[in-house]
Amino acid sequence: MTVFSAIDFDRHEQVNFFYDEETGLKAIIAIHNTNRGPALGGCRMWSYTDEQHAITDVLRLSRGMTYKAAMANLPFGGGKAVIIGDSHRDKSPALFRVFGQCVEQLNGRYITAEDVGTSVEDMVFIREATNHVVGLPGGSGDPSPFTAIGVYESIRSAALYRLGKSSLKGVKVAVQGLGHVGYHLCQLLADVGADLFVTDIEPELVQKAADEFKATPVSLEEIYGIEVDVFAPCALGAVINDQTIVQLKCKVVAGSANNQLENPAHGELLAKMKILYAPDYVVNAGGLIDVYYDGPAYNPDIVKVHVAGIHDTLLDVFHKAEELRISTSEAADLIAEERFRLNSDPLLK
Ligand SMILES: NC(=O)c1ccc[n+]([C@@H]2O[C@H](COP(=O)([O-])OP(=O)(O)OC[C@H]3O[C@@H](n4cnc5c(N)ncnc54)[C@H](O)[C@@H]3O)[C@@H](O)[C@H]2O)c1
C-alpha cells in the first residue's frame, strides 16, 4: 500500500486513515490543498476491491475538487473522503456518527457532503458529531438544476467561441443521459429553440423528452456519431475514449459528466480534430457553487448569477488554449493552478 509514491499523489497536504472497531468504519480523508480555504468534497462509500483502489480514488478525487473550486471562484480547497464498505449492507447511523467524529478531529480543515453511496439522511448522523458538513435536509436541496444551468452556459460559451453564434436557436445538441442534470439541460435548451437529440438507457425518459421538447430519440450507440454542433455527455465518465472519439462528428463537447476523457491524450486528440472540449470540471461546477451558498440566507438568484460566470471562465480557458497552443484541459489546469497555488483570487483578499 503506497501513498507518497502513488501515481495520484500530488503534493496532498494531509491524508488521514481512520478505523473504528465497534462500527467497522474504515475511512480515508484526503486534503489536497487549502490555500483558498477549507477543503470541501463529498464522502463516497464504495466496496473497493482493495485498499490501494480506495487510496487512488481519494487522492484523485480530492485533487479534482481543488481544481473545480478554484475554477468556480470559490473560497474552498479540495478534499474528499472515502468509506470502504458496501453502502447497501454496511451503513449504520453509528458508523456515520463515528465518521463525523473523524471529520471533527480535522478542526474544519475538511468539510464533508454527500457523494456516491451516501445520502442526505447519512449527513444528519454526521452532523450529530460535527458542524463541518453541508447538504443537510431542508437546505438548498438538489443541486442538479444549477449544474444544468452551468452546462447550458458552457454550451452558450462554446457556441459563441467555436460556431460564432450568440444564440442557440437551431443549434443541434446531442444529450447523452436524461437524469437530474440532462433533463433540466434539455428544458433550458428547448426554451431557446435548440434542436435536441437524446438518448438514455431508460426508454421512458427518452419518450418523455421527445414528447416534451420535440427531441429526436437516438440509440445508445448512435449518439456519438450523429452530425450535431454539440455533444453533451450527461451520464457516465470516460465516454471520450479510443472507441468513441473516431465516431464524433460534433464541433463541441460540453456536458456534466465527471472525467469525460478516458485519458489526457483524448483531450489533445479532440483539439487536433478541431472539436472544442469544454473541460468537465469547469462545466459541471454549478452544483458545488450551489452548495457554497447553502445556509439560512440562501438565495437562488445569487447562485444563478455566480453559476452564469462559468460562461466567461470558459471563454478564458478557450483563449488561453489558443494562445499557448495547448489543449483546453491543459489550459483549464493552468488557470486553476495559478489560482490555488498563488492564492491570488480577489475573492480571497
Ligand atoms: N447532479 C449534479 O449536480 C452533478 C454535479 C456534477 C457532476 N455531475 C455528473 O453529471 C452526470 C449526470 O448526473 P445526474 O445527477 O444527472 O445523474 P443521474 O443518475 O440522475 O442521471 C444519469 C442518467 O444517465 C443515464 N445513463 C446511464 N448510463 C447511460 C448510458 N450508457 N447511455 C445513456 N444514458 C445513460 C441514466 O439512466 C440516467 O438517466 C454524472 O456523471 C454526475 O457525476 C452531476
* Computed structural class: alpha/beta
Hetero groups in this structure are: nicotinamide-adenine-dinucleotide
**CATH 2nd-level architecture of the largest domain:** 3-Layer(aba) Sandwich
Q: Round the Cα radius of gyration to an integer and report it.
A: 20 Å
Poorly predicted spans: none
Q: Determine the fraction of residues in helical runs and give it as a percent range.
A: 40-55%
Let me know the largest β-sheet.
Answer: 6 strands, mixed
Beta strand count: 12
Give the overall pLDDT as a whole number: 94
Strand content: 5-15%
CATH level-four homologous superfamily name of the largest domain: NAD(P)-binding Rossmann-like Domain
Number of domains: 2
Order of helices and strands: EEEEHEHEHHEHEHEEHEHEHHHHH
From the N-terminal CA to the C-terminal CA, the straight-line distance is 40 Å
Shape: globular
